[in-house]
Design brief:
Shape: elongated
CATH class of one domain: Mainly Alpha
Helix content: 40-55%
Strand content: under 5%
Structural class: mainly alpha
Number of helices: 11
CATH architecture of one domain: Orthogonal Bundle
Largest sheet: none
Length: 246
């Protein structure tokens, strides 16, 4: 190849690159550009990196409560959902995700996560008009003795005598379980159940009648009374006795 021919080939290549190619090989496109973690506003990415490990890859069947549950989302209001994501839940495995509380997410990302959970998985129109009790306890506080009566009426058929497990469902007074969950988590479960594993909600019970708001509070009080005392607390048993009682 002569020098003239070689120069012509180089000119053609340069012209083709300049006029016909949108980018050079190896140069990232706009879609491929690196985004700072604090700027990510992609639900699949944010949920997958921060929530799926506990709540399940599609918002269900994780170790923690299903978030892909329209009934749960009709119970918890947007402010409470944001608060839980932002601040976490003390003394449980639910951490705070907002940066100001020690997490990795900005306020915008927390808001985005909460908005997307509600818009993608919520469906408040899908339920019958039986009103749900309030997400948080309101009015008269629960009474554990009344709760024991309510338990026998609504729960014992599945969970057995005194909550220790039956033919249809396991124990709900297991001390390790009760130490891991918050009072609010117990209340939420009593109200909305865990329908993906067969636990009915407070509107449809084995007793036919829905559980009233007061009975929900009473049931939670009874469950809390079964929780073993924390070691070192004034109510803890002496070291010669088991701290985990039936």
């Amino acid at each position: 190849m002569t020098t003239k021919h070689f120069a012509l080939v180089i000119f053609i290549l340069i012209f083709a690159v300049a006029s016909g190619c949108s980018r050079f090989p190896g140069k990232p496109s706009e879609a491929d550009k690196w985004i700072a973690p604090s700027e990510v506003l992609n639900f699949d990415q944010l949920y997958g990196e921060n929530c799926a490990g506990c709540h399940g890859s599609a918002g269900r069947f994780g170790a923690a409560r299903s978030l892909n549950d329209p009934l749960f989302l009709s119970l918890i209001d947007p402010d409470n959902l944001r608060r839980v994501i932002r601040e976490g839940v003390a003394s449980t495995s639910m951490p705070a995700f907002a940066q100001k509380f020690g997490g990795q997410l900005t306020d915008s990302q927390v808001d985005f996560l909460a908005d997307q959970i509600e818009s993608q998985w919520g469906n408040p129109e899908a339920f019958n008009p039986v009103p749900l009790p309030a997400y948080r306890e309101q009015g008269a506080v629960g009474d554990s003795q009344r709760g024991a009566v309510a338990y026998n009426s609504y729960c014992s058929e599945c969970h057995g005598a005194a909550g220790r497990g039956g033919e249809k469902a396991g124990s709900i007074v297991d001390p390790d379980f009760l130490k891991l969950v918050s009072d609010q988590s117990l209340r939420t479960t009593v109200i909305v159940g865990r329908r993906f594993i067969g636990k009915t909600d407070c509107r449809a019970t084995t007793n036919v009648q829905p559980i009233s708001a007061q009975e929900v509070s009473d049931l939670v009080a009874w469950l809390v009374s079964q929780r073993p005392p924390a070691l070192g607390s004034e109510s803890a048993l002496p070291s010669s006795q088991s701290a985990i009682t039936p």
